[in-house]
Amino acid sequence: MDRLRNVSDVLQRTLFEIAGTPVSVATLIIAAVIVVLTLLLSKLAQRGVRRWLTRRGVTDEGSVAVTARLLHYLLLFVGFGIAVHTVGINLNALFAAGAIFAVGLGFAMQNIAQNFVSGVILLVERAITPGDVLEVEGRVVRVLRMGIRSTIARSRDGEDVIVPNSVLVQSIVKNFTLDDAAYRVRTVVGVTYGSDLKVVRGVLEDVANQVKTDMPSYNPQVLLVEFGNNSVNFEVAVWMDDPWLSRLKLSHLNEAVWWAFQERGIVIAFPQLDVHFDHPVVESLSRLAPTGT
Fold first, then answer.
1. CATH number at residue 43
2. pLDDT digits (tens, 9 = 90+) for 166-186
3. Considering only CA atoms, which of 159, 141, 150, 72 is closest in space to residue 115?
C-alpha cells in the first residue's frame, strides 16, 4: 500500500504550470501515450488506404502516396491537438488563427480541393475505371491511370490527356464501356430521287449483314431518315464490341456501301444547282453577246 501511495504521489506531483493549469507526471505520460497511439493509428490507416485504393484500381503510386500522407497529417493534427489539450494548453486561440488561415488557404486551393474531392467520389462510385473508353468534351479517350487529382487518358491520336477529376464529375461524360461494350456504328448515304428505293434498301441491308459484326445478338438497321434537298438519305447502322475501333469499322462500312452501289449502278447524290433565266434576262444577255456568237 505504501508503494502504491508513493507511486500515486509521484504521478500526481506537479512539475510546472501552463496558464495556471498544473502539469503533473501523469499528465505528461497520458500525452505521450496519446502521441504514440496516434502514430500507430496513422500507420495502420495508411496501410488500409493503400490497400483500398489499390483494390479500387488506382495504380498511380504518386496519388496513393499523397493520399496516405494527407491522412497521416490529419491524424497527427488531431492526435497532437488532443495531447496538447491534455497537458493544459488552451488551443482556442490557436484554432481561431488556424481557422482564418484555413479559409484563406481554401480560397487559394479551391480547384485543387475540388479535384481531390472529385477523385474520392470517382473512386467510391466506380463509374469510371482504368481501361474505360470515354467521350470527354467531344474527345474519345481511353483511361490509363486514375489519380486523386487527375485522370490520365490517351486519345485515338496517341496523345496523353490529363483530365482534372472535377471535369469527370461535374460535366456530362459518355462511358462506352460502363455496363457493356456494345457500340453502334452508323453512316448516312444519300441517293438521287430517281433511284428505286426498294433496291437501295435491299442493297444496304445486304451490306449491313455482310459487314463483320462482333455482336450477333444485335441486328443491323437500315432507316430512311430524310428527304433532303438533293437526295434521299438512308442511315446504315451495325454493332461492335470495341468502341475504341469504331472509326475503323466505320471505314469498312463506308467502303462496303460504295462498292455495292457501284456494282448495282446506284448513284450517290451530290449537291446540284439548277439556274433558270427569265425571258427578259435572256434577251438582255443576247444583246450583250458579241455578234456571231
1. 1.10.287
2. 899 888 999 998 888 889 999
3. 150
